[in-house]
């Protein structure tokens, strides 16, 4: 498919131009005023074209519990989440559709799904998500969430001498599962990539990390993990390694320019230098970090140290939405309270670059994605600047990032294929999806989580809350 | 007008019931299942009824610069705002309409407009806002923003010995203006109240505060001001009074149960006790406090001390939206990072109470507004729980507060009058408003503010940034 977007606003270094953009097949082929029309004509009048953003960290199936989990810190929140996650692959398929739709309607053209696997149906889980993303047409980076230690091992021990049940699946079997997922589903040219994705130091052995490094190198896969989301994880790392988690991950060779790390709230200055040296990417999930009380990630320090930073929504049970523009807004203004010098604050234009090119770098695709550049792939979002939430007219990017844009995505293309037109997703029946999500769920309140009851006294003791 | 909402979800102390709600005239007259139908029947199936929220602090005309002002702290931001505020009363009217519409579509039935007055056209400015709010039908609390010192006096002096130009209007003339506004526009029964609203200690003399107290007592008016929004204001208060601003305001008698105070970021523990003792209300504007880098208001401490807290959007140039649900979400989850003990965190249900009953208390109207109670006024919002942004179904209030609800307000009533039906504002032509806001504005970037240039060196010096 080829098309020409005419008279569209494009951001320049310090302003905007009105120009034409030509797309042949999957690539941007020309950017100039008054281009000859090739293919379909798209009217760009009063519209802004931006590179598609990336929802660079989420867990799609959490959509089934959004709005529901108690106001808890991560460790107890996770216990409640897992107590009430009776998923099946059909639900995985539907929540992946929902995640894709909300991401697209808020400016995203790619999603990194740190996908929770149904025990015993791991490959079927991945297949369900792949099917959903391919049906919608969003670019998908599926990071099957793996661990080889059981949930209670994720809490620091403190003075206690708890033992933990072994995880139900061996490290070797888990690595074999990831390799099989790569064989079956890793098709970057078709818009689906598999990442190695050990959940984090809190629930993974070095053997699992090392096995993932080996798979990553053999198949040229990106690496994706949680990192130091909470103070409890910082404590745990010291107990486990006698050094910071970042130092340990560097020693075992996990960090690098294909490695993206969600959260990164509890890093010290040495850790930050290591991320910069290794060219690792931080995925900032501001809403989740607030909701779970994890803390404010030192994003301004990361930027000053030259660490690449991008944004994610995190799963919809800890946010509780999949609205990328919301994550970008909060993820940029939140840090103004961490440094009195406003000259280090993140501008709306910088936030847009973090959400697009920053994400592309973290996925080792900066040569192909993340900016509107001749030769790059056509992953594009066209925003309708006449929308009520974007008037009066001022600075289009300021309005998008600092405002609360609603129903503003006029069109979206992924790999040159149009998947939103006239503000409607064209590839799936969103109305049918809405009805299914409604009918497969019920109103719920006041759940009692048994695992929370098991964990809470220990958690409060070890975190100094008693 | 009378109506009966049938089979609607209402929140109880710890869950929900499905019931009927009957409204006669402007009041809620019965709440019970299977009520006899009186007046129009409203189908409440799969809908949640909540008391209308209050946008308890905003400046409506800032809508003309939303998305546009540089990423600055308050003092420089304000300089830029005022350099580019060539308002006329028609624009004031339109931005008041816009503020009312965005507030309504995000669950608000009342707005407290700390209204910037056009010099020389002060009463005409107020008349324009009154006209807009009455046309929309939202309950309006208009707080004409007054000061009697010029802008540069709002910066702490530090080591400098600057003098400031006198403000263009005398204190007496300003108070006379407010009194005339009360005579002309203060009609609470018609849905419009005037508040006395000295902007804050940074730009007001004691004579102005004292005159406002006197007017407030004579006409039974609420009082509304900014308070200690920034660290610079904390410094200034020490320079001006030799004590904290709160101590000073208590001494002159400004605080009390009809006084609501926007921001309250830089209060110490003694200040907090004073707010509790005087039963003053804090209006928390989380998005503005982040955008301007003002800081994180100690809201959990306020709640623990028994201080009443509610939410505002603040003006649309410092947020940059008028979405109350966004302010409520961020205003509740933001504080989870300020206290490790999750037992003090704000739950979604507590946030809803703060946004409704908390606001009513601050406006001295808790006997009439703020809850769905027989005998109270029918300021009500009916949310459509089948909306895509609220599925899968879980906890309705959790979804509303923690999610990112979009297009979810099915109906709104103010004083028993329906002003939103089937998700459309019924009282004004929103499409016409959108077109006017679009055509009366233009794309803009890269403005140079002369006042910022004047202030910046001094600001950086006195704040220790050089």
TrEMBL record, chains A, B:
Residue ranges constituting the Amidohydrolase-related domain according to the UniProt record: 49-418
Record flagged with keyword Coiled coil: no
Molecular function GO terms recorded: guanine deaminase activity
Enzyme Commission number(s) from the entry: 3.5.4.3
Entry keyword set: Hydrolase
Domain of life: Bacteria
Enzyme class: hydrolase
PANTHER family attached to this UniProt entry: AMIDOHYDROLASE-RELATED DOMAIN-CONTAINING PROTEIN (PTHR43794:SF11), AMINOHYDROLASE SSNA-RELATED (PTHR43794)
Name used for this protein in its record: Amidohydrolase
Species of the source: Trichormus variabilis (strain ATCC 29413 / PCC 7937) (Anabaena variabilis)
């Amino acid at each position: 498919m080829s098309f020409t977007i005419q008279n569209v606003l494009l951001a320049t270094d310090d302003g905007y131009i009105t120009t034409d953009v030509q797309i042949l097949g999957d690539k941007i082929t020309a950017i100039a005023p008054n281009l000859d029309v090739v293919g379909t004509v798209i009217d760009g009048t009063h519209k802004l074209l931006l590179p598609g953003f990336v929802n660079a960290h989420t867990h799609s199936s959490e959509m089934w519990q959004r709005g529901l989990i108690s106001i808890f810190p991560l460790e107890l929140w996770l216990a409640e989440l897992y107590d009430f996650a009776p998923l099946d692959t059909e639900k995985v398929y539907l929540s992946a559709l929902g995640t894709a739709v909300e991401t697209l309607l808020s400016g995203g053209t790619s999603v990194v799904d740190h996908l929770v696997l149904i025990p015993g149906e791991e490959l079927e889980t991945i297949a369900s998500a792949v099917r959903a993303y391919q049906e919608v047409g969003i670019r998908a980076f599926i990071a099957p969430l793996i661990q080889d230690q059981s949930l209670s091992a994720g809490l620091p021990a403190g003075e206690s001498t708890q033992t933990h049940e072994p995880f139900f699946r061996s490290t070797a079997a888990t690595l074999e599962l990831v390799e099989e997922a790569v064989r079956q589903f890793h098709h970057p040219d078709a818009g689906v990539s598999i990442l190695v994705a050990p959940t984090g130091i809190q629930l993974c052995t070095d053997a699992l990390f090392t096995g993932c490094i080996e798979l990553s190198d053999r198949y040229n896969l990106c690496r994706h993990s949680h990192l130091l989301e909470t103070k409890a994880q910082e404590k745990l790392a010291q107990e486990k390694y006698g050094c910071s988690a970042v130092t340990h991950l560097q020693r075992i060779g996990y960090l690098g320019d294909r490695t993206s790390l969600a959260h990164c709230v509890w890093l010290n200055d040495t850790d930050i230098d290591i991320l910069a040296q290794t060219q690792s990417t931080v995925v900032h999930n501001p809403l989740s970090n607030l909701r779970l009380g994890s803390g404010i990630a030192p994003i301004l320090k990361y930027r000053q140290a030259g660490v690449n930073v991008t944004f994610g929504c995190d799963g919809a049970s800890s946010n509780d939405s999949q609205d990328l523009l919301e994550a970008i807004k909060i993820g940029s203004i939140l840090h103004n309270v961490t440094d009195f010098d406003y000259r280090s604050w993140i501008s709306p234009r910088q936030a847009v670059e973090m959400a697009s090119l920053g994400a592309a770098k973290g996925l080792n695709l900066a040569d192909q994605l993340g900016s509107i550049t001749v030769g790059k792939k056509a992953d594009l979002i066209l925003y309708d600047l006449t929308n009520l939430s974007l008037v009066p007219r001022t600075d289009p990017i300021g309005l998008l990032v600092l405002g609360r844009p609603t129903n503003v995505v006029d069109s979206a293309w992924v790999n040159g294929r149009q998947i939103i037109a006239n503000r409607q997703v064209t590839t799936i029946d969103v109305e049918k999806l809405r009805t299914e999500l409604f009918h497969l769920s019920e109103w719920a309140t006041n759940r009692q989580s048994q695992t929370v009851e098991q964990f809470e006294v220990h958690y409060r003791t070890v975190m100094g809350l008693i």
